[in-house]
Amino acid sequence: MATGAPQSGLYRPCATILGWENAPKPLMLLIEAQTWLIQTLINAGIEPAEAEAESRWMLLETGLSAVQMRLNPDQPLSAASEKQLKQMLERRQKREPLQHILGHQPFWDLNLKVSPDVLIPRPETEELVELALAYLPTQGPVQIADMGTGSGAIALALAQTLQKRGQPAEIWASDLSEGALAVAQENAQRNQLEKRVLWLQGDGLTPFFKQALQLDLLVSNPPYIPLKDWQELAPEVKDFEPRLALTPGEDALLFYRLLASEGSHLLKAEAWLCVELDHGMAQATLALFQIPTWQNAALKKDLRGCWRFLCAQKSPSKHHSP
Ligand SMILES: C[S@@+](CC[C@H](N)C(=O)[O-])C[C@H]1O[C@@H](n2cnc3c(N)ncnc32)[C@H](O)[C@@H]1O
User: Which of 65, 236, 238, 275 lies in disulfide reach of 97, CB 3.0 to 4.6 Å?
Assistant: First the structure.
């Protein structure tokens, strides 16, 4: 007796008999795609709210508009869109950040290229830009420096805003990483701001001292995650973002010590420093600025209610005399 697969019509799947196997696969509906994306992302360990937001962003990347998505959830996706979503999802399931997959991130009124060379700019940093603008003179030419510029997010957001205001500004931005500076310069071009920022490579404040700057504002979002916390970071961060951008090593306060001890020499009298920091080390950072070269040092909360920023004013020069 034959033991192979049954060949008679009786045992063949009916789709074969009817020829349906060659029929085109029905196209996935938008609403089905949304459910598929969200569920796959959740299964990969992504928070439900984040999964929902990301599924929306992925669908927008296929060329759908927000209005189409809202008004016509039963529309079929094209085969090309479905393929594009599948490719994105495969990478995202491995916890690669969506911004790396798409290659860009909105920040302020900018569209920034992001790559593994730069920190993906975070929404809190937009609040730092807002804060910095509040401490900047609103009239006349201003000079600004951004230490550890990464993608150029802060420097370019300030440049864009001052350009829109018609306020003359000289802006310098530095980074130790040449790869980051290349991305920042590309971002300046992308956003038609290439003549607005001067990019300097070097360690800490050294590039600014070399230019003998006297600034109206010094701003920075330096690396501040202590190395001991590295393993607790999300896979998107620890496996894909540059370590140089995240951690200064064992001493989480390293860059704040530098800014507190040397930053005032780069500022005009009574000009301001604004920095981003971690909630957990806010008080320790504030303590570094309780020295005579600084006045009015204060912590500020972000929109989520966490201590996230510190602003300090350079004291008038008479306070420095021995
Ligand atoms: C937290 S990221 C901030 C990037 C960007 N400013 C932002 O807010 O999205 C810190 C940046 O500091 C840079 N950096 C690290 N060590 C540095 C050093 N010793 N001197 C200058 N920049 C440094 C990193 O390359 C990184 O781009």
Answer: 236
